[in-house]
Amino acid sequence: MLDRRYQTLIALAKYQSFTKTAQKLYITQPAVSQQIASLEEELDFALVIRDHGKIRLTTAGEKLAQFATQIEFEGTKVIDSLRNNVEHLKMGCTLSLSSTILPKFVQQLSTRTNIVTTKINNTQHILQNIRDGKVDFGLIEGNFNKKEFDAFLLQKEHFIGVGHNKYRCDSIENLFDQPLLLREKGSGSREIFENWLATQNYNINDFKNTIEIASPSAIIEYLKQNDGISFMYESLVVNELKAEQLKKLDLTGFHVEHPINLVFLKNSYFKNIYQEIAESV
Q: How many CB atoms lie within 10 A of CB 265?
């Protein structure tokens, strides 16, 4: 859909090299330079800064490339749905939400389209998938850049500390000698816990033993069978708490409630559709 020059700008923003952009687009390097120069002349502002054989996009160039990328994949989505008369929704979801809120979304989406694709990963991966057009929107509990993304609030979740029933303590300091199980870097739940620790002038390194596990369900199973603590959404361990397999840690000053959002690119053409989806679940 886009002018070839904008497609070249998108590739240049990705590869940060005239040579590599030419290789990926199967055109010559002079052709890349000519297309960018033509675009700069038409727009009357610089897109690229050349410095000792290296190049980087100007701030305006980066913003234009980002906008062009969004137009490219959203335009493709519109044309595909019109051509095939089928709406294909691609949704991302963080691991912490995959066993709680995701099933409701899949059920609801299946009533409006016969094709639903779901990618499950941590917050940073899902946000990158949205940028790259690999998913249309994401169900996310982590933080995101509001200058880059829009969102509709779905609900708020209680974020709690959990551990074996034997734990009797009222301060985070008394837990530093216990094994801490946490998600990998890039996960929303880890970021929430690290941010709270920072408000108490502590960090992950204050714990003597930390264990990273990418799966929330694996963390829960570990805690049911071994010593250790973790921090996660209460909805993930409702059954374990009721069955007294795990205990909620009553820590002084730890009262965290975090929003769950449906996140998508800023100024998306499909914003009204995402709002309908958010309100229907």
A: 23
